[in-house]
Model the fold of this input.
Amino acid sequence: MSILQTVTPESATGEVAEIYAQIKHAWGHVPAAIQVFSANPFLLRHQWEYYGSVMQHPTLSMPLTACIRMLVSQAGHCDYCIDMNAGMLINLAGWTPEQVAATRADFNDSPLSPAEKTLLGLVLKATRDSSRVSTRDLDAARAAGWTDGDILDAVNHGARMVAGDIVINGFKVERDF
Done:
């Protein structure tokens, strides 16, 4: 539920029903955080296709992208997204609750690789104060083995999460997990 009128999976027709069927097939259900985009089928499709590209990214791991979402959402005070991604880290990546808590306190204490921590630090810097990002930050990410495409994809993922937090918080999307 949300304060924005959305289409439930039970009442979906046409393009929304088709997209919901894809989501249900992939995830087993249609999360409320996705349903909020049903008010505009174009945005719903775009969001779903974007999630698919992130989930199949050739170099950004699921734990890294979940940490990006969780920590960006922590700064954006989006409890729905914090808890959803913490759950993904525990249930899909096999992290312990203690590892998630340590990551939330300081991403440098996470089980991510040193290269992933470097890229995550860049993403967090970019989403918190983008004017502070410098050539040195990109050079550090490159030295850690990331391509410019990886850097763009990770920072874009963080930036999109800022927007997602605004949508989820602004429309009061209720937790459904």
In short: The first helix runs from residue 14 to 27. The CA atoms of residues 64 and 116 lie 7 Å apart.
